[in-house]
User: What shape does this take?
Amino acid sequence: MENKYYIYAHIRKDNNSIFYIGKGCGKRAYIKSNRNDYWKRIVKKHEYEVQFLMENLTETESFKYEIFYIDIEKRKGNCEANFTLGGDGVKVEKRWWNEKISKALIGIDRGFGKENKNYKDIVTKKQLEELYLVEKLTSVQISKIFNVSIPTITARLIEYKIPARNSGKLKTKIKCLEDELEFDSIMDAARYYNLHRENISKVLKGVYKKTGNKKFIKL
Assistant: This one.
């Protein structure tokens, strides 16, 4: 089998971090086509450099080492533009395949003894902070980039405790009738009760009677 494959990394010029790792042959490492939207956003804003991690590999070896290197960098908080753990190029919407990693890493010295962890969602805190807080994109715009639902993005913002942006508009003060707690905004209430902001808004508008067994009114 011809050893024509390699493992490459794309490195952001602004902070020298690895944001993407892939396998390829020929000029694949330098080609900008067939990249995901998040990869394109990083390249457009920060530009990038190419670094080769391994060369002279068979195709089978390249699959294994692609998974190996992505696994390592994901642990460091890098490889934001890798939406899978590699090895097949298939996008995983809701989960990462631990079984595939374990099988692919058989016989490879990983160099550390940490327990392997799942990456439970394709949208990470680092990605959301950059898109939501720095680039000021809306939940709708972010959901289109990752091809996931708007409630998924909203849930991640709440889970990662990413602060709401100050839009310059007056906030809607609300009150929960069940426990008499008052909040300065719908977002504050959503985070406190771990509810979706849109559902609280629908309660306030009379579309829903309650959400999460809570009823809210405007103050």
